[in-house]
Each structure stands twice: as C-alpha cells, then as structure tokens.
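Quarterly update from the structural biology core.
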Amino acid sequence: MCADASDGTHVVTAFLRHRGDILVLRRSDAVGTYAGQWGGVSGFAEGDPDEQVRTEIREETGLDPGNSVTFVRDGRPVTVDDPDLGREWIVHPYLFDADHREVDLSEEHDALEWVSPTELLGGFGETESDEDAFETVPELWSAYERVAPTVRSIAADDEHGAAALSVRALEVVRDRAGLLVAERADYGDDPEEERDELAELAGRLLEARPSMAVLRNRVNRAMTDADEHAVDGAVGAPHVLEAALAGIDRALEADDAAAATAAERIDGTVMTLSRSGTVLEAIREGEPSRLFVAESRPAREGVAVAEELAADEALECPITVHTDAAAAHLLSREAVDRVVVGADTILHDGSVVNKAGTRGIALAAEREGVPVSVVAATDKVSTREEINLESGDRSAVYDGDASLDVANPTFDVTPADCIEEYVTERGALEDEDVGDIVAELRDLEAWRE
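Predicted structure, tokenized:
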C-alpha cells in the first residue's frame, strides 16, 4: 500500500510486544517534532508503509523484522490533527512480537521502557504528581487499539498455541479494564456497570476457543481474583485491571516453569509436533542430540518450529522435518528416546487434546516402547467432561469439484495410558493428580454464578 501525501503526512508506528508489554521510546532533541514525548517505533512513510515500518524497526531498535521480530498485524490508519503544528498526520499502526528486549537506540531516541499498553492512557510512570507523568505523542493509544488483540483475532488465530492465546485473552481484558479506568475522569465511576461490561467480555473470550481449557481457566482466575480483592464489595474496572495484569505475569511464569522442568528430560533423540511455545522453550533449554519434527498439517507449523530451532546458534544438533504420516515409521527405525508434545487441553481422565497427529504418534511410540511426555502448565487441565474439537478448512484437504465429504480435524485425543507423564510448573504429575487440579480450577468458575 503506497501512501498518498495529498491527504496528510503519512507516518508509520510499530508497537513491539514482548511478554505482554510493549516498547515505548522517548523522542530525543534530534527529531523535528514531539521531542521529549514517548511513542512507538515511528517514521515518515514516503513510500510503502509496509516496507517503511520494517526499515524503522531496524534503524531505531537494531532488531531484525522476520528474525528476532515477527509481524503480527497492521491496522486501519489513524488520523491525527495537530493544530499547533498545522499538520494532519495519517498514522499507519503495526504490531510485531519481539523475541527479547535487547534494543539498540538510534539518535532519534534517548530512553526506552517496556510497559503495559494501558499505561499509554494517562501517561505512564505516573506518581502522585502530574509533573512526573510521561507524556506520549498524540493519539498513541488510538493507534495501539487498531492492532491490539481482540476476541475476533483470538478466535481466528490458527498459528499460536493455547498458552499464547490465553495470554492474548488476558490482554484483551486488561486493555478494556484499563480504558474504563481512564474514562472515570470524564464519566465518573460505576463499578457495577464496569463489572458487567467486563464480565460480558470475559464470557465472549471463554467461547472464542472452546477447546482451549487454559484460556478458560486463566480468564476465570482473573475474574475470580478481581471479585476476591474488592475489599469494599464493589468490583470495578480497577480490580479487574489489577487481576488481569497479575494473571499475565502468573501465566508466563507458569509456562516458563513447565518448560524448565521439561528441559531436564530432554536429551538424546527427541520427536515432537505442532507449535507449543512451552515445548519449544524446553527444547532450547534441554540437551537434545537429535530432533525429529513432524510438519503438523494442515498449517504445517512444525516446519516453522524446525526452522526456528535450526536458526538457534545455541542448539547444536541435527533437525529432521518429516510428514505426520511418517512418524510411526521413524519411531520404528530410529532410536528415538522420547516424544515430547504440548497440550491444548488435559481432560479429567488424563487424556490429552492436542494438534491432530498427536494420537497417532503416541500410539506408535507406545508400540515401540518410547515414553511420551506432555508439557503443559496445570491451567491446561479442563474442568469439563465434554470435548469440543475444532476442524480446519475443508479446502486445505480437497478443493476439487467431486462430491466428497472432507474430514480435517484440527485436534485429536490421546488416551492417558499412552502418556508417561505430565510435566508442569509443579513438576511431573501422575494420573491421580489431575483430579485434584480439576477441583481447584472449578473453584475459579464461581464468578459467573
């Protein structure tokens, strides 16, 4: 998309996200406008904004789009009128995920912070004195809203695992609660109405991905914590905001701890499939001597996982990508020491809902005497007995003209007796431990009553 300067001055603004926070930069005296104010990675869009935003990221942060920075989405431009400058800005917003927070500032900025996006609403770093609040460039929150996660984006996401999407869901709750807190200055506070609005939003998130228990459990925990910490009994937006922020931190810490526990078991030759961020981190922290990665149809996210691992200089082992159908053959011919997979959901009886193909690999591994480890935070245990298995697009299997039925299940169910252990932030669980966790998680559902 090319920018037409006739209808205003086109600029790009990129929000770099890492572990729920976004990067903001303070503009230095070297820039022509808004010196001393905070914004995203930005610059004039003299040609194609899609190309320019990547150039700005490289120049202003030293990070490489497509390597350590991954494009998430762009949003509709935001028009910003600045009467003091006599200019109309057309802001093209973008969202990228960053693998780390190591940033090399250019001369255009003299400071940086990683903050919750909600801090853009009233000046982040705010203390009791308004003079201590950090001022942002005009309409920075409006630009962020155009690329922020939504119920719709979570429902449509077929690239990320359940743990990542659960954090996105908490970000949706956080952002809306933060906006309601900021609006109190203009409209006053109505805790009951705020709580009702946020509860309705949380309910829509619960149904966005019904097969993902971790999303349900983590949203439930945030709403329950908000109810429990409202000392005056009036649960409002500030309580939900605090609970969502704490929930994001807790979720990330639980996933990290599960990965660290699993890493201790990863040595020798390992087979995996699909894209689990927790498994990916466990492999990086472990000491595999060889990796087999199933391509994971239909989206083939396993190929992207293999490429990502191959690019990791710290991981020095051969990596083999193979079709899902070849997994049983390879398990029978290669000396695989362990199968390591993630889980979208762990059911009450210990069976596991995960990417289609997991059941086949687990059954083949049992036949060959290869142990199967499921790596997941305990929040992935489901409190429900029913199973809601999502299906993919039929055209990914067949797009011809013949009168054919098409089966394209996205998930399958692996029996508990094919699984050696469940590796969580609490350590390795046995089958009988799952029931205790179900009881804990059911207590978090009381907020809906």
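DSSP finds twelve helices and 18 strands in the chain.
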